[in-house]
Amino acid sequence: xxxxxxxxxxxxxxxxxxxxxxxxxxxxxxxxxxxxxxxxxxxxxxxxxxxxxxxxxxxxxxxxxxxxxxxxxxxxxxxxxxxxxxxxxxxxxxxxxxxxxxxxxxxxxxxxxxxxxxxxxxxxxxxxxxxxxxxxxxxxxxxxxxxxxxxxxxxxxxxxxxxxxxxxxxxxxxxxxxxxxxxxxxxxxxxxxxxxxxxxxxxxxxxxxxxxxxxxxxxxxxxxxxxxxxxxxxxxxxxxxxxxxxxxxxxxxxxxxxxxxxxxxxxxxxxxxxxxxxxxxxxxxxxxxxxxxxxxxxxxxxxxxxxxxxxxxxxxxxxxxxxxxxxxxxxxxxxxxxxxxxxxxxxxxxxxxxxxxxxxxxxxxxxxxxxxxxxxxxxxxxxxxxxxxxxxxxxxxxxxxxxxxxxxxxxxxxxxxxxxxxxxxxxxxxxxxxxxxxxxxxxxxxxxxxxxxxxxxxxxxxxxxxxxxxxxxxxxxxxxxxxxxxxxxxxxxxxxxxxxxxxxxxxxxxxxxxxxxxxxxxxxxxxxxxxxxxxxxxxx
Length: 540
Description:
With about 550 residues, the chain is α/β, with parallel strands linked by helices. The chain folds into three domains: about 160 residues, Thiamin diphosphate (ThDP)-binding fold, Pyr/PP domains (Rossmann fold, 3-Layer(aba) Sandwich), CATH 3.40.50; about 160 residues, Rossmann fold (3-Layer(aba) Sandwich); about 200 residues, Rossmann fold, CATH 3.40.50.970.
């Protein structure tokens, strides 16, 4: 067969269950070969959307994400989504056709593009090495949790090869943690009287192990935003740490005498620009990547190893203690740990609904078995903090690059990875319009999705950042957009919501056959910035 055929069939055999992309002449044959090998191909309307779908699918499913793009412009169109995946250490393979002749109008330095955003650049170099090259790229993506751009030169694609099928790359194993580091961490935990565990994406597989250790030492549990839902239902869970933390969660984390980041970067967002880390607190970090230890703030102790394995080893050595836990604190967490338990002044009027009121009403109406994708912007704290999720697979947060416009594609990828759950896309109006082409993809795939647009008629983050300083805001404010009309044009059922009572249409849709998508154009108040954004501005 041709190299294109061998590469496509090899990828399908190595676990490319879903492949996302936009097909052009350069990736036509290799994409068809993946389909022939058993992969399901999802055609996006823009390569940027396809990249984000592959990223979100990998995050939610735990499987390899695969993206296929045309040479040159196909790759450049996908670069924002690839950058997001690379910064998030998503195991993803980007199969990019490549023009290697500088005279070609499609020629760009694709390897340089990949490395410039933190991805790994690789190449299928010849007909004889094609299968080996693919196996190497898949192994690196999955074992090192990297986003790999595998360039497939056009001239090599057309060559003939007799290469046979490839074996599945050996998973290998994570490095065994240093026994002295285990002892040091166990000692630090045993000495602590107010320990707090913050779990990140690297801990999403280790709920049971972390809960068992936390129970022995009396630690409170929190997550970074990307691991939201990991400890759902645990009575000692504080929810999200950082900018989205509730007042009680922020208070208790800031009072800790030991904070352990488990597979968590402990970056400025998770620590609320460092304000949640007290001056006398001991900070420890557990991560597979040695380079992650202390990358964002000074730490007192670092352990290299798999989170689950480290937690099991430490639990054996740690002294049993009530730690931070008490009946009085349990009562406070039960009644006050959620944002919806915090009193607020409802800013709704006859024309616009307070986003807190909207989010709580949505939380009440939507079924719990949901998977939520969130776009970026001033609004994003409301769905992230007010909409509950059943577990860590119920929340997909592509925010490492802080790009707007990824939310709809995020929810498509997550929906395909969790088909038994209701997908809910939470978008701002700016990001919604930027990614609007993928509304056709949602409709074409018959995904029973609820799409909520928090519509404040502008780029809210910039409006609330620069407005108080008296700067002109014409560049970031826009006339109101009728998203309901746009949704109907794509074949959706649509609602315009200015008051809570207008959400009855959501109940009707949920009770019906759900044979269309439901788009909710929520006209939200714009009088103040989101609480988390105001804190971020102060942090800067």
